[in-house]
Write a structure and sequence with these properties.
Structural class: alpha+beta
GO molecular function, one term: oxidoreductase activity
Distance between the termini: 51 Å
Family: Belongs to the oxygen-dependent FAD-linked oxidoreductase family.
Keywords: FAD, Flavoprotein, Oxidoreductase, Signal
Mean pLDDT: 94
Oligomer: single chain
Number of strands: 19
Helix content: 25-40%
InterPro entries: BBE, FAD-bd_PCMH, FAD-bd_PCMH-like_sf, FAD-bd_PCMH_sub1, FAD-bd_PCMH_sub2, FAD-linked_Oxidoreductase, Oxid_FAD_bind_N
Number of helices: 15
Organism: Neocucurbitaria cava
Number of domains: 3
Radius of gyration: 23 Å
CATH topology of the largest domain: Vanillyl-alcohol Oxidase, Chain A, domain 3
């Protein structure tokens, strides 16, 4: 039945003007070899359009076909087909990556992972098996409903596997470590179509590499992750959002720096700043929010009283569970942060604390944003880092365990290629301003990469680390088939 449906799809698609290579025997053989649940989409169809839409319209990989795979074997066959036909391939999960290198994909084959979305709890409840198409929000909800949790990201609509490959920041990292620190093993399809298991016992060097630089080495079809029992005293998340006008910037972030520098920084505390525009509060200047998240039924007054004393323009307070925490940042499935159809750019900067003069310059740049860019925000993510910093840096490819803060603008503008250069220029100015008062060395979180970062900026300045990554790249991807996202390059 599956082959018949594909055949009918191929016939009907002729009327859509997409005949290139399709009727040749190699493609027919490839289509017939796939699992009956797999689907193939071609340009001109509604399915193709939906599958190729990315979170940012400024990233426009050009595909000749998209294969909605349903098994690891489908992934293998798709990669082999792309290799045989000298076509680039690229994996599509959440579609949130904003690196400009994705635009280098032409006449490509997309590997859509959404059919591979099974989650299974194993090993007496201490681990879970996740397929490569699982979304972060789905994982949070599934585990929560089974009395479990793990380190999960701050956005429901991103794929869960891809962030692991770059480290993975988010809720509960102070308690458990990064998302990549939860990885027990992975099934991967390499650039030559070979499927392997990667763990501490099987291909241990590659296991080291995929936890921080994994976009370079393969398509992950399944992972085994550590999971943890929910604890009644940790189930509630108390949240307060304090809204301030721009004149309170230095006072608020002096307080925030004090929390970051505390020798007894609590694992329950996350601080999360956001610059944005709200004409109801200030019709001209950007305003900012300081969100305080506390894993528990109430935020201790030592964290809320200093902010209340500064007379915020508004205060929001609620108590929720982990399944709803992302909604406060409009990062649930229906929230504005997950909306598609806009052009976006992210420009990551990792820091240990806030430079007040640098923050002021960033806010001043926001003040001058053109009208088309005034839906943009600045993220100032300050998740707890207790467990992250305890794990030895040499144990994985993730290079930046000393940082306390992850900064990035989310520059947003209407889909319009003529505005893309302006977005790029604004992002560069924000990055340069944010680095003022530091040693000038940029440490850029690879999952937010925009495409102009050096290897050192993404993967660390230690020579041994870069040499190890380059050696593994030559071994597992000698022809650079995975070079469309933060590639590891030769000297």
């Amino acid at each position: 039945m599956g082959t018949l449906l594909w055949a009918l799809g191929a016939i009907s698609s002729r009327f859509l003007g997409t005949l290139t290579l399709r009727t040749q025997p190699p493609r027919d053989h490839f289509v017939a070899s796939l699992n009956s649940k797999a689907e193939i989409y071609y340009p001109g169809s509604e399915q193709f359009l939906n599958a190729s839409v990315r979170w940012s319209a400024a990233q426009t990989p050009q595909y000749d076909m998209i294969v909605k795979v349903s098994s690891e074997a489908d992934v293998q066959k798709t990669i082999c087909f792309a290799n045989e036909n000298k076509r680039p391939f690229f994996t599509i999960s959440g579609g949130h990556g904003t690196t400009t290198l994705i635009n280098n994909i032409t006449n490509g084959v997309g590997i859509l992972m959404h059919n591979m979305n099974n989650i299974t709890i194993v090993d007496n409840g201490s681990a879970a098996l996740l397929e490569g198409g699982v979304f972060s929000g789905d994982l949070i909800s599934y585990l929560w409903s089974h009395g479990k949790q793990t380190m999960t990201t701050g956005c429901d609509c991103v794929g869960y596997i891809a962030p692991i490959l770059g480290g993975g920041h988010g809720w509960l990292q102070g308690r458990y470590g990064l998302a990549s620190d939860q990885l027990i093993s992975a099934r991967m399809v390499l650039a030559n179509g070979t499927a392997i298991t990667v763990s501490q016992d099987s291909n241990p060097d590659l296991f080291w590499a995929i936890r921080g630089a994994g976009h370079n080495f393969g398509v992950v079809t399944q992972v085994k992750m550590k999971i943890y029992d929910r604890e009644p005293e940790q189930d509630q998340w108390a949240t307060s959002g304090f809204v301030f006008t721009q004149d309170k910037l230095e006072q608020v972030f002096t307080i925030a720096n004090g929390w970051l520098e505390s020798p007894k920084r609590p694992v329950e505390l996350t601080q999360y700043g956001v610059f944005s525009f709200n004409p109801d509060i200030d019709p001209i200047n950007p305003i900012f929010m300081m969100w305080i998240y506390w894993q528990g039924p109430a935020i201790p007054s030592k964290y809320t009283d200093p902010l209340n004393a500064l007379s915020p323009a508004a205060v929001d307070y609620s108590v929720t569970g982990l399944t709803s925490v992302n909604a406060h940042l409009q990062a649930d499935r229906d929230g504005g942060a997950c909306a598609e159809g806009f052009s976006r750019a992210m420009v990551p900067i990792s820091l240990t604390n806030y430079s007040l003069p640098a923050l002021r310059k960033v806010l001043d740049i926001f003040t001058t944003l053109p009208t088309e860019f005034r839906t943009s925000i600045m993220l100032l993510e300050g998740y707890a880092t207790n467990r992250v910093s305890e794990i030895p840096s040499e144990g994985s490819a993730f290079p930046d365990r000393d940082a306390n803060l992850l900064l990035s603008p989310v520059l947003t503008w209407p889909k319009n290629a003529s505005l893309d250069a302006t977005g790029w220029e604004i992002g560069g100015r924000i990055r340069r301003a944010a680095l003022e008062g530091t040693d000038g060395k940029l440490e850029a979180y690879v999952n937010y990469a925009r495409g102009d970062e050096s290897m050192e900026e993404l993967y660390g300045y230690e020579s041994w680390r870069l040499e190890k990554l380059r050696k593994l790249k030559k071994e597992f991807d000698p022809h650079g088939r995975f070079n469309f996202y933060a590639p590891i390059l030769e000297d």
